[in-house]
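tl;dr need the bound structure. longer version: we got a ligand (WTA) that a collaborator sent over and nobodys looked at where it sits. i said id run it. heres the input, straight from their email, havent touched it
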Amino acid sequence: MVIIIPQETLPFESKYWPIKKYLEFYKKSLEDPEFWAEEARKIDWFKTWDKVLEWDPPFARWFVGGLLNVSYNCVDRHYQTWRKNKIAIYWEGENYEEKVLSYAQLYREMNRFASILRKLGVRKGDRVAIYLPMIPELPMAMLSTARLGAIHTVIFSGFGAKGLADRVNDVQAKVLITADGGFRRGKVIPLKKIVDEALEIMPSIEKVIVVKRANIEVEMKEGRDYWYHELMNKAEPYVEPLPVESTHPLYILYTSGTTGKPKGVVHSSGGYLVYNHSTYKWVFDISDESVYWCTADAGWVTGHSSIVYGPLSHGATIVVYEGAPDYPAPDRWWEIIEKYGVTIFYTAPTAIRMHMRYGEEWIKKHDLSTLKVLGSVGEPINPEAWLWYYKYVGGERCPIVDTWWQTETGGIMISPTPGLDYMVPLKPGSATFPLPGVDADVVNEKGEPVPPGIRGYLVIKKPWPGMLMTLHNDPERYKETYWSKIPGVYFTGDYAIKDSEGYFWLLGRADEVLKVAGHRLGTMELESVIISHPAVAESAVVSKPDPIKGDSIVIFAILKHNYEPSESLKKELKEHMRKNLGPVATPDEIFFVNKLPKTRSGKIMRRVLKAVLSGAQIGDLTTLEDEASIEEVKKAYEEFKRVVSG
Ligand code: WTA
C-alpha cells in the first residue's frame, strides 16, 4: 500500500517526488566529500575544523580540530537574537502544574546551574550522573554539564538501585543530580531513597544535588547532599561556555547489549550535534514555528537527541511532559497537543497501540489541527497502527515519519524526509529510505547484498557524524560488537528487507535484545538480576510477542534445592526485578523448571524456549545437550497454560 497525501492537503511546502528523484539526491550526498562540511557550517564553531573526517577503521573522528560548545549552540546563539523572548520549554507536570521558560530564562537558569556544578568541583571531562524525573531541570542539567565540557550520563529514573549503581560505577561519576521524588500515575517514586540505597555501592559519587519536586521527606547527608534550590540561591549569573574539541565526548549513555554488562555508548560533541541538527530539519521540517513534542523519557537516546539537542539547536519550542500517557484519563496526550498547539509529535508504536485500544473517541474530543508531522520510533510499527495514527491523530493530513535509529547511531538514519524538497511516497510499516549521507544496506552473513524481498542484516557501510565514538573503557568490545560480525561494515543487530522498489522494512532485532514498550533491555542483564535473588540457581530470560508492548519478559528459573516453587515466590521474584531494574523490567510470566535446554558447550538455547512459548517449530536442535530438558520446558509451559485457562 502506498500513501500519497495530496499536495493541497499537505500542511507544508514539501512535495512528493518520484522515488528516482530522491535517490538521485541521496546518491549525490554519498559521493560528495563536501556534503557533511556543508552541513557542519549550519552550527556555530569557535574554530572551524581542519579535517572533516579522520577514518581509522573502526574509529571515526569528525570535524577534527574544530572547537565548539553544545550548550552555546542550543541556548546562547538563540538568546543573542530575537528568539531571546521566544518560548524554549513548555513543561507540564502530571498534576497539571505548568512552567514556561523562554530562551532568556533557560539561558539564565542553565548558567546558574553550571556555576553550582563548577563550585562543586565539576571540570572538563568529569562525569556527571543525572537521575531525574521529566522536569525542566533535566534538560537544564544536561546543558549545564555540557557548558563546562563535562560529560553527562543520564540514567532513566525508572531504573532501580542496581541499574543506577551499575551505570554510575562504570562511568565513575563524581556528582549525581537527582530529585526527592517524581510523580507517576499520581504516585510518588522516592528517587532520593533509591539513590541512598545505591550510594552504598557507588563510591565514586562525592556530591549529590537534590531537586525538590515531590515535597517528601528525605535524608540529607551533611557535606555530601545539597538541595538544588539552596545552591541556586548562591549561583553566579554567567559561566563562559568552554570551547571543546569536536571529538570531546558530550555524553555517555548506557544501553543493553547481548552480555550482562550494559554498554556505555560514547557520543562526540561536534559530529553528534551536526548530525542531529541536520536530521531534525530533514525529517521533521523543524522551524521557528515548530512546537515539538517527543514523548520519550530523556533517560533514553530519543530523549537526548529528540527532546534536547536536535530541537533546541534549531531554536524550536519543546514540550516536556512529566507523567503517564493515560493519566488521569486516556486523552491526556491529546489534551496536551491541543493546549500547546503542538506541530510535531513524536512517539513510539507501543504507545500508539495502547491509544488505539482506548479508541479514537478520546481523540475526537480535541482539536489536533495544529499537527503537521507525526513520528514513530523505537520498534517496527505495524501497518494497522500506522494507519490508525495517520487517520485519527493526523487527520489524514500529516506524513508519518517512521524513523529507524539506535542509541549507537546518535540520530535518525532511515526515515521519510518531509523537510527536504524530495520526499518519497509513504508505505505504512516501512521507514522508506536512508537519509542523505547514510550508506545503509541489507546483506547476508558474508556482507553480500541480498535480493529484494529476502531478509538480511541491516548494516551501514560508511561512517556518519552521529556515529558513536567507542564504548566507554572498552574499545575492544566496540570493535567486536559492531565491526567484526560482518567485516568492514557497521553491524546494527537488526533484520531488514528491501522491497522491489528499494524501500527498507525493519524487522526487529536479530540478537538477544528485547524491546519492552520501546525500552531496550538485554536478556543477560535481566538474568544477572534474577540470579542475584537467593532462591534462584539458574535462569533464562526470553521475550514473548505482546500485542501492545512488542516484547514481554518471560523468565524460566531453576530454584536452589532448599526452595520450593510457589505463587508467593513468583511474586517476590517479580518484585525483585522491579526493585532492581524498575517497572519496565517486571516479568509477565515466571516458570519454575528443573533443567534448561543447553548446547553441548553449556550455552542456554533461548530459541528453544521461545519456540515453546510461541508454539513455533523448534528448529535444528542437534547441538542440544540434553533433549529431555525441552520436554521439561514444554511441560512447565503446558502446566502454566492450564493454570491460567482454568
Ligand atoms: C529498534 C532507539 C523498527 C531497532 C532510538 C534498533 C526500530 C533498536 C525503529 C534501537 C524503527 C528503533 N523501526 N525498529 N523505526 N527504531 N528500532 O537503542 O531494533 O533504544 O536496533 O534506540 O530499536 O533501540 P535504542
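gonna send this back to them w/ a short note. The chain has a mean pLDDT of 92.
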